[in-house]
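Key result, reporting period 2: structure in, sequence out.
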């Protein structure tokens, strides 16, 4: 299965989530890549859109390789392989502080005039454009679970099968359109996988803001 772009993936994901249409679900996109997709899902399900801010804790050897993740509260998920991949306790503490600063900056940038939308008592659907290690999704689900939604759903277009299994303890339902065995990277399943800018995220959030 190949998606044309994130909007195409969003339409297909909304079809798989159609049972929640009309129930005012809260769609929580992980920036930046999932925000254009989340906008489509929110529109088609007649729900609200917001962001859930989490950051990878990256390897000292590669900014793309996640050793874990952290949410806005400071709760961190550390992968079981982190120590063997350069994630010493001292390094991980520095990395946590660095990523927390980025989270504070992004919250001020993305939603400067309002607090995050409260998922308490609602159907909360956390979306990303795909999973690899799943670290950021785990942090996002943990952050939302702490806010007591009525139902918490992890929804992605594509993921390795073993990563999907890691998600199940953190949510009530996992929705994934394609879980191939030959997974290498999320981008291989998109024809267009260009980076999403901060400016695009801000514009989308403003366009969906309820006055």
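The corresponding designed sequence is given below.
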């Amino acid at each position: 299965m190949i998606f044309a772009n994130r909007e195409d993936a969003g339409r297909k994901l909304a079809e798989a989530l159609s049972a929640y249409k009309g129930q005012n679900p809260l769609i929580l996109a992980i920036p930046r890549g999932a925000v254009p997709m989340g906008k489509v899902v929110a529109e088609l399900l007649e729900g609200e859109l917001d962001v859930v801010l989490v950051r990878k804790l990256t390897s000292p050897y590669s900014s793309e390789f996640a050793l874990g993740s952290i949410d806005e509260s400071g709760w961190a998920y550390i992968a079981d392989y982190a120590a063997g991949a350069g994630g010493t306790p001292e390094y991980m503490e520095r990395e946590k502080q660095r990523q927390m600063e980025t989270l504070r900056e992004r919250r001020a940038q993305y939603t400067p005039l309002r607090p995050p939308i409260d998922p308490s008592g609602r159907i909360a659907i956390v979306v990303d454009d795909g999973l690899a290690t799943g670290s950021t999704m785990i942090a996002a689900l943990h952050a939302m679970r702490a806010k007591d939604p009525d139902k918490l759903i992890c929804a992605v277009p594509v993921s390795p099968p073993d990563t999907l299994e890691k998600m199940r303890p953190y949510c009530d339902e996992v929705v994934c359109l394609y879980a191939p065995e030959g997974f290498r990277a999320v981008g291989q399943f998109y024809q267009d996988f260009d980076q999403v800018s901060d400016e695009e995220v801000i514009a989308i959030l403003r366009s969906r803001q309820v006055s």
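Residues 55-109 form a domain with the Ybab; Chain: A; fold (CATH 3.30.1310.20). The chain has six helices and eight strands. This case is discussed further under Risks and Mitigation.
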